[in-house]
Amino acid sequence: MRDKEADLGLHDLYRTYSGWLTARLRRRFGDQTEDLAQEAWIRAVPYSRRGVIAHPKALLLRIVDNLVIDHARRRAPRSLAITDTVDPQSAVDPASQIDVVLLKQLIVSMPPRLRDVFVLSRFAHLEYQEIGERLNIPVSTVQWRMQKAMEYCAAQLRL
């Protein structure tokens, strides 16, 4: 019976907040909105089974933040395995591919707090206010971290 009540609670949450979440995600992520929203609701299920969710909007935004970070980590470069092969036909412009690899390595080597702000600003195209809300930090901290991230990039490029 408890699972049935939890499912009803999640249904009520969905009915109440799905429009808000979709609108919020659409502004930030555009065509990724539906996938992120669906995955967010799936990840909200265990929380609804634990009982009443005190701050559903905050929970949903935190889930989406974690999803975005997870997706960014999955896209990060990984070490080549012995079984990995390179298709020579896919090599269109070696110079631009090298730049992309170097950029990815630079971003991955950044301290995590700087990297999170940098990625959300430059690749998710979020404003500092939105980044602050997403990471639960003041805008001044976002500005400081972004400045440090840019200094880090400049220092690495000078090497």
Set down the secondary structure blueprint.
Elements: H1 2-29, H2 33-50, H3 56-75, H4 94-109, H5 112-122, H6 128-135, H7 139-158
The gyration radius over C-alpha positions equals 19 Å
CATH fold assignment of the largest domain? Rna Polymerase Sigma Factor, Chain: A
Mean pLDDT, all residues: 79
Strand content: under 5%
Unreliable residue runs: none
Roughly how much helix do the residues carry, as a percent range? Answer: over 70%
- Which architecture name of the largest domain does CATH use? Orthogonal Bundle
* DSSP, total strands: 0
Overall structural class, as computed from helix and strand content, comes to mainly alpha
* Count of folded domains: 2
CATH class of the largest domain equals Mainly Alpha
Q: Name the overall outline.
A: elongated
Q: Could you give a short account of the major beta sheet?
A: none
